[in-house]
Design brief:
Oligomer: single chain
CATH topology of the largest domain: Rossmann fold
Strand content: 15-25%
Order of helices and strands: HHHEHEHEEHEHHEEE
Radius of gyration: 16 Å
Number of domains: 2
Low-confidence stretches: none
Helix content: 25-40%
CATH superfamily of the largest domain: Vaccinia Virus protein VP39
Distance between the termini: 45 Å
CATH architecture of the largest domain: 3-Layer(aba) Sandwich
Number of helices: 8
Number of strands: 8
Mean pLDDT: 92
Length: about 210
């Protein structure tokens, strides 16, 4: 384990999510991967995966092919699998995090890719896409790629950190996609603290978007 990794759970979370660049964040996630589940795997520490899954159960078919964007070690994938979803694909930019996820046997496919730009994955490959904990970490251009990967009529279930949506540029790209007739937000859930024990200032809502 790297000597860089901070000694406490809260310090590790803070160190990773406040990386100054996307590339540095990728490096820090690779370092954190072996301790990630122990740090944020509890529902008391990271509520968003369970809240996202509650919504996914209501709006998605359990037979759907669901892409988990920013899958990390598979916390959302595990929640979806437990809820009965059968076909899951993981995408993440950290090789080490994906290797942890691979070991859990949750996903039919795992892809190492940078979601801030168009990937080599085929357009319209999925019936739905879920993404959790990415608003503050993945560049907003990823929203274009999410829309590209989901077939028309499919849905994106997005755990949105509302306080940073516009600040980080997601709002502008949302408006761009809506104006182009590619995306429509059909549901916004009640706000909650997504990481109450380590980052209580992060207020999250689960949004459902339809790809047009």
């Amino acid at each position: 384990m790297s000597d860089e990794l901070p000694d406490t759970q809260a310090a590790r979370v803070d160190w990773v999510i406040r990386a100054p660049t996307n590339q540095e964040m990728r490096r820090r996630y690779d370092i954190w991967a072996s301790k990630y589940d122990g740090d944020v795997g509890s529902l008391d520490d990271y509520i968003a995966p369970a809240e996202l899954t509650k919504v996914a159960v209501k709006v998605l078919d359990r037979h759907a092919h669901v892409v988990d964007a920013g899958a990390g070690t598979g916390l959302v994938g595990a929640a979806l699998k437990d809820a009965g979803f059968e076909t899951l694909t993981a995408l993440d930019f950290s090789v080490a995090m994906l290797e942890v996820a691979r070991g859990k046997g949750l996903y039919q496919a795992l892809h190492h890719c940078d979601l801030s730009q168009e990937t080599d994955l085929p357009a319209d490959m999925a019936d739905a896409l879920v993404t959790c904990g990415t608003t503050t970490q993945v560049p907003p251009s990823a929203l274009r790629e999410y829309v590209r990967l989901v077939r028309p009529g499919g849905k994106i279930v997005f755990a949105v950190v509302t306080g940073t949506w516009d600040e980080n540029g997601y709002g502008a790209i949302q408006e761009e996609l809506e104006a182009a007739g590619r995306l429509n937000v059909v549901q916004k859930g009640a706000p909650f603290q997504m990481m109450p024990t380590t980052e209580p200032q992060f207020i999250c809502e689960i949004w459902v978007m339809e790809v047009l």
